Amino acid sequence: MLENFIDITNNVISEDGFEEFLPTLLFPDRNEVIVLGDLPVADNHELFAQEWIAKVVKPQENYLIAYRVDSKHFKVIANLDGAIEERTCRLGGNGLEEV
Q1: Are 2 and 9 in contact (CB under 8 A)?
Q2: Model pTM?
Q3: What are the φ and ψ backbone dihedral angles of 13, each rounded to 5 degrees?
Q4: How does the average pLDDT of the chain come out, rounded?
């Protein structure tokens, strides 16, 4: 599921541009996607994303989130059945490269 979310995130960035990319939270069990808007202009959205998770995610709820960490990287975190996995991905000429 994490790999699919990374692919989807990369497709969104390819279509809309990285400058427009906002933190995106997926709840697979609810079949719901939420985008965090009204953020200040910044390369790093990690603090905003972490605060958002704390407010909207219910205890023991499965989720995946993607957000910018700098001008060339985004991070994806998956919390699925209590197992947390993180990946930082670099935008590349032919898609992404994990770092």
Answers
A1: no
A2: 0.85
A3: -65, -40
A4: 86
